[in-house]
Amino acid sequence: MAYQTLIVEIEDSVALIRLNRPEALNALNSALLGELADALKQLDANDKVRCIVLTGSEKAFAAGADIKEMSEKSFVEMFTADFFGVEADSLLRTRKPIIAAVAGYALGGGCELAMMCDFIICADNAKFGQPEINLGVVAGIGGTQRLTRFVGKSKSMDMHLTGRFMDAAEAERSGLVSRVVPVAQLVPEALAAARKIASKSAVATMVVKECVNRAYETTLREGVLFERRVFHALFATEDQKEGMSAFLEKREPQFRDK
Ligand code: HXC
What residue intervals traverse the membrane (predicted)? Predict the structure, then answer.
């Protein structure tokens, strides 16, 4: 998979996507987001891939949407292109788990991109922010909605209204990230988590993703019912039989995604 703005490697059933626009701190332009949407579509369809890690550089996961690309656009241009809505929707259609591994800046669209992944592991130098207010705009690919669900109204308002950055300790304390590790260990830690996920039944991991995401989309009663029904449905899989037999026989399960 050859791209201009991404580096994609596949090893041990895990795909590692690196955003690669170092000259602009991985600012998200149409080319990069188009390539990312394409890469995710292909990796989702690739039987050799069971989990995906998305990362940037040690200095920046992504410093936001590309301000140079956007600055002269009109409302009509932004609206008719549904600017970055198409790419964001495409990313959200990925059914395999995606871990965001964030070091350095994750600002604006960069923070939003990380939040669209399934969970975030960050380095101790990470800085999250929604500084669009400094540019006279607002987040545009879900920041006001997702950050509020992650960290609550008060902190989300603070971040969006003042444009201040959140460091790794605050991000972990507030539930934005699942783990913080030293920067040199970020990618190894994320890859190890991805390999662990890759060892599970792929059907079950996709179901987990659907269930947890449902918590954002529906009422508690409907979400719990959805979960119970898919829990029941998994008893139609061979992987359920294998997982439970392996436990009872005190051995490691051999899942076959069936
Ligand atoms: C375009 C960017 C960029 C961006 C950095 N660069 N962020 N280019 N769009 N978002 C470029 C700089 O212009 C510079 O290029 C190079 O990257 C290095 O950046 P510096 O500013 O020199 O680095 P530093 O002093 O270390 O400061 C880092 C920084 C700062 C704090 C991250 O770059 C910054 O504040 N960036 C903008 C962050 C931001 O406002 N993001 C939100 C964007 S709006 P040159 O060529 O000068 O060397 C958004 C809306 C999303 O994301 C909505 C989606 C539709």
Answer: none
